[in-house]
Amino acid sequence: MYKSVEEFMDMVAAKNPAQPEFLQAVREVTESLWDYLQDHPHYLHANILDRIVEPERVIMFRVPWRNDRGEVMVNRGFRVEFNSAIGPYKGGLRFHSSVNLGILKFLGFEQVFKNSLTTLPMGGGKGGSDFDPKGKSDNEVMSFCQSFMTELQRHIGPNTDVPAGDIGVGGREIGFLFGQYKRLRNEFTGVLTGKALNWGGSLIRPEATGYGTVYFAEEMLNVKGDSIKGKTVAISGSGNVAQYATEKVNHLGGKVVTLSDSSGTIYDPNGIDEEKLKFIFELKNVKRGRIKDYTAKYDAEYWEGQRPWKAKCDVAMPCATQNEVNKAEAEMLIANGCICVSEGANMPSDPDAIEVYLNNRILYGLGKAANAGGVSVSGLEMSQNSMRLSWTREEVDQKLKGIMKSIHSQCMKYGKEGDYVNYMKGANIAGFIKVADSMLDQGVV
Ligand code: NDP
Ligand code: 2IT
């Protein structure tokens, strides 16, 4: 048995070289769990920690495809089937040039705990490719997706592993992937989520991650007798999660002053209202342009090559990617009066930034709790597919709200430290218990 977090991490680091993001995710969970495990040693006796950091299966494959010039291109495809203790593997696909095995293992590991928190029967997985859809034609994206699915289809299924979207995988990609699965398998099933409404999708799935992140912030603020209403909010990213987080902040009476992409940030102190957001939807989802183009139409500053965190705000919602808030930026947020961070992205705050939040005792909703709305509605899409019916917008939104509330109370239950709630600790312990107990029930698995 391990005597310390360090001793355990030495073992994990030796087994997983050159996977810094995976080690970062494992360390965060292990540190949160450590005291709880000492008080509940049956988990340690059964070596649950060693088992839970090892994916059940990793699939890695060649994805050859032809570009518009007729050249043969090759990318690498992955699916990490991390844990199926509480349900079929479930988690998104990421298409981005930075994708490698370590990144997908970190995402798959996070997904195991996140999915457990949702209360729905979903195990954890993640996949993707180093293919970058940015700058590719629709035809190239389709060729790539068809080749990717030609291999992936033999590993997934509605009761085995159900992928969805993530960075670089939205409605267009899910359509191409689903079409190819159906051709190869000759079956119309709920093998993917994030499908369009006409062919098995769920209302509110596109909105769910962003809405959920705002619902989670609202829950945290409510405990303090406060709310989003009247708050100034800084959001990073301008993709699926950022767009719908902005929409929901507007619904609740807050003001969003920043959005960004990997080239820079726009700062609009007057707020990105409903009309301006419409422009962003068109710019990002149809024209597939850059966030800088916002300044050609609206009065706003553009911060080339910079992230949003120097903007004065009450609430910050990082909704772009991992490690996009560092210690100096976290300190800047606090100095400017930020009282709440709710993470739409996965692991966007680095460990030093998290330390700053906790030391300053601000409300910190970590990704695996605050962004669980997306996979939750994916779970609801699976239920609707199985029952062959569809719920109304209001029904799905109500269920989403209920799930975010329940995640918030699980975090409160296990994260209380005096009069402060450490949501990170709470989420990690609550997510762990259900998965670990299920693994114990199922024997040496
Ligand atoms: P999208 O592809 O729709 O948007 C991603 C956004 O983040 C874009 O604005 C993109 O800018 C920016 N971005 C991506 N990579 C980087 C980078 N390395 N540096 C700076 N900016 C970057 O993805 P989503 O909105 O779906 O995902 C955003 C985050 O939310 C991810 O962390 C994802 O894992 C997480 N998430 C998503 C869920 C979902 O349902 N989609 C569910 C739960 C979490 P650019 O266009 O310049 O690349
Ligand atoms: O990180 C995530 O939770 C997602 N990308 C969504 C996964 C899903 O299966 O909907």
Heterogens:
NADPH dihydro-nicotinamide-adenine-dinucleotide phosphate, (2Z)-2-iminopentanedioic acid
Count every beta strand, where a strand is a DSSP E run of 2 or more residues.
Answer: 14
CATH H level, superfamily name of the largest domain: NAD(P)-binding Rossmann-like Domain
How far apart the termini lie comes to 19 Å
- Assigned CATH class of the largest domain: Alpha Beta
Shape type: globular
Domain module tally: 3
Give the percentage of residues in beta strands.
Answer: 15-25%
Might you state the CATH topology name of the largest domain?
A: Rossmann fold
What is the average per-residue confidence, as pLDDT, rounded to a whole number?
98
Output the radius of gyration: 21 Å
Number of helices: 17
Classification by helices and strands: alpha/beta
Explain what you see:
The chain has 17 helices and 14 strands. With 445 residues, it is of the alpha/beta class. It has a 7-stranded mixed β-sheet, sandwiched between helices. The protein has a 5-stranded mixed β-sheet with strand order 1-2-4-3-5, with helices on both faces. The protein has a two-stranded antiparallel ribbon with strand order 13-14. Helix 8 crosses helix 9 and helix 15 crosses helix 16. The longest helix is centred in the C-terminal third of the chain and has 23 residues. The site of NADPH dihydro-nicotinamide-adenine-dinucleotide phosphate (NDP) has 24 residues, from helix 9. (2Z)-2-iminopentanedioic acid binds next to strand 3, helix 5 and helix 15.
